[in-house]
Design brief:
The complex is a heterodimer.
Chain A (H helix, E strand, L loop, with lengths): L1 E11 L8 E12 L4 E6 L5 H8 L7 E6 L2 E2 L3 H4 L3 E4 L13 H10 L5 H14 L16 H13 L5 E5 L7 H18 L2 E6 L2 H7 L2 E6 L2 E7 L9 H12 L1
Chain B lengths: L1 H7 L2 H18 L1 H4 L31 H37 L1 H15 L3 H12 L3 H28 L2 H8 L4 H37 L11 H9 L7 H27 L2 H13 L2 H12 L1
The chains are: A alpha/beta, B mainly alpha.
The structure holds adenosine-5'-triphosphate and magnesium ion.
Magnesium ion binds next to helix 1 of chain A.
């Protein structure tokens, strides 16, 4: 469904006069199937977030394409209501001038529904992510990190997209809250029949929620494993992660 | 509205705002406020000291100084505001384009800005006056030409910093149009930066315009302007120093008012402070308690 085809991306190297470019992603191809949760694990700096931005159509690849149902995501009308995202840094995920309601309303407004419908929808959404509907008039700095992340999830699912990209969405949360949010994501996935692209360092979280995991290294896909075969993984980085889990 | 409410809690800001408002109103309705015609010569009142009729006295041609100060608001303050508005607007549009879209647009706009900024401001103004001739409107044109590049630069930096935030990324990802994103997410947060830099630069612009008029390059006699009034008083600086007082003080007071206002705006426009402050003032019962505690402590 969401298909990344031979994508390459490079950034200008720092330095005023150097025209050299640093290649971040090399010839990446992958596919996230419908209703699947696809994990992407890799070291810091391996280019996961860059891949995420390309999949969201925020940035353009140097070459190659990202297609959703055969249409290019660079066109914003293709993205509209089809794709959504939750990011890591909860401090900047909601406009400080917006209340929770306004924040969730923003993607909903494009769908030309009546105001009353939207307001009702927000109530259900807030309940679904486990927040009381009285939170609708709060500002983001009045919420805790976990609560903001829940609001962001509510905002992401509000348009009932086909695919949500979660870029380290739970990494900055407390471990106990992480589990709650993972549970929530699992439930929502069942209700809305969405697919997730789950970018993380945390192999445990990935094992918990994902159906398939991609091991990412130096801008390339090193390995793709089904979650049942995770313990047979060959790549060095994943082995290291697994080992550190077992010793604990 | 909440910005005003926040400012009103700051006494210095309130006073500054009041001074600025009074100055602007007096300038716009100068014929109503000024007791005399500013250009009316009355040689019998030459160098007259303040009286009930002429509150600030009369100058070397017997003209009423108070009336001249009030009429002088127009070139010295009002036209500066107009020029500032134009250059901020031009700077903001280009700054938003450059900072939000990056890439080639950014490179082109910034190279033009660099070119404009590589000339020292005064030299540029003198060059424009040299080409177009002496006069207030030419100085104003020169100012608009110089300043927009500077504003574009500053605003671009501010926009760039906000355009990378996650809520902007989210809006982009969900397919909301760039135009909407700029207006809903970037303008409100950069507005505080724009307000602060522009109110901060009014002061220096007023001083510069007065400076040019002082040199005789700005508005031409007999029209009143604060810098020119200073220049006229200079000739009798040692015999009648009090003549410098009125225009000098007028400049100092207005410039300081703008500077203080810009400082207070910086605090008042911070979104977190703005929103939380208002909330607590309205809802929390214990702000009143705290005030009382303070009274007890005193
Ligand atoms: N806008 C940019 N301009 C230049 N270089 C960039 C840019 N964005 C990312 N990079 C570079 O790309 C590389 C990969 O960055 P990326 O953010 O994709 O890593 P990541 O895998 O998400 O890491 P982490 O797990 O720490 O989030 C880094 O070396 C970074 O310096
Ligand atoms: Mg990252």
């Amino acid at each position: 469904m969401l298909k990344v085809d031979k994508v390459q991306k490079s950034y200008k190297k720092n330095g005023l006069f150097s025209s050299e470019r640093q290649i971040i992603l090399k010839n990446v191809s992958l596919e996230c199937r419908s209703r699947e949760c696809l994990g992407i694990i890799g070291e810091s700096g391996s280019g996961k977030s860059t891949l995420g931005r390309l999949m969201l159509g925020i940035e353009k690849p140097d070459c190659g394409t990202v297609l959703i149902d055969g249409m290019n995501v660079e066109d914003r009308r293709v993205r509209l209501g089809n794709i959504s995202a939750v990011f890591q840094d909860y401090k900047s995920s909601i406009n400080p001038f917006f209340t929770v309601e306004e924040a969730i309303l923003e993607p909903l407004k494009i769908q030309n529904k009546s105001k009353k419908e939207n307001i009702d929808k927000i109530t259900t959404l807030l309940n679904q992510v486990g927040l009381p509907s009285s939170y609708r008039n709060k500002y983001s700095h009045e919420l805790s990190g976990g609560e903001i992340q829940r609001v962001c999830i509510a905002r992401a699912i509000s348009t009932e997209p086909k695919c949500i990209l979660l870029d380290e969405a739970i990494s900055s949360l407390d471990v106990s809250v992480q589990i709650q949010v993972l549970e929530l994501l699992k439930d929502l996935k069942r209700i809305y029949n969405m697919s997730y692209v789950f970018i993380t360092h945390d192999i445990q979280a990935a094992a918990y929620i994902c159906d398939r995991v991609i091991i990412f290294k130096d801008g390339q896909i090193e390995e793709i494993v089904e979650i049942e075969h995770l313990k047979d993984v060959k790549s060095v980085y994943a082995r290291k992660l697994l080992k550190s889990l077992i010793t604990f | 509205m909440r910005i005003l409410r926040n400012l009103s809690r700051d006494r210095l800001a309130t006073i500054s705002l009041l001074i600025i408002a009074v100055t602007i109103i007096a300038g716009i309705f100068a014929p109503l406020f000024a007791p005399f015609d500013p250009n009316e010569i009355n040689m019998s009142l030459r160098y007259a000291s303040p009286s009930w009729e002429h509150l600030l006295g009369n100058d070397h041609l017997g003209r009423c100084i108070l009336s001249r100060i009030i009429y002088g608001i127009r070139p010295s303050v009002l036209w500066v505001l107009v020029v500032l508005f134009i250059s901020v607007l031009a700077g903001a549009i280009l700054g938003f384009l450059a900072g939000y879209f990056r890439g080639k647009i950014d490179a082109i706009i910034m190279r033009i800005c660099d070119t404009m900024l590589s000339f020292p401001g005064y030299v540029m103004a003198l060059a424009v006056i040299g080409i177009l001739g002496v006069g207030l409107e030419n100085i104003l044109i020169a100012f608009a030409l110089i300043k927009w590049a500077w504003f574009a630069r500053v605003i671009r930096t501010s926009v760039m910093q906000y355009a990378e935030l996650d809520y902007v990324k989210f809006s982009k990802a969900t397919g909301i149009s760039d135009f909407k994103i700029i207006f809903k997410h970037i303008v409100p947060v950069t507005f505080s930066d724009i307000a602060v830099i522009s109110s901060g630069s009014i002061g220096s612009m007023i001083l510069q315009i007065s400076g040019f008029s002082f040199l005789g390059l700005g508005i031409q006699a007999p029209n009143p302007e604060w810098g020119m009034m200073l220049n006229e008083a200079r000739e009798v600086m040692f015999t009648r120093p009090e003549l410098m007082l009125a225009p000098g003080l007028a400049i100092v007071i207005v410039v300081s008012a703008f500077n203080f206002l810009s400082d207070s705006l910086q605090v008042a426009l911070d979104p977190k402070l703005v929103i939380s402050k208002n909330k607590y003032k309205e809802n929390s019962p214990y702000s009143a308690v705290k005030v009382r505690e303070k009274e007890v402590a005193n």
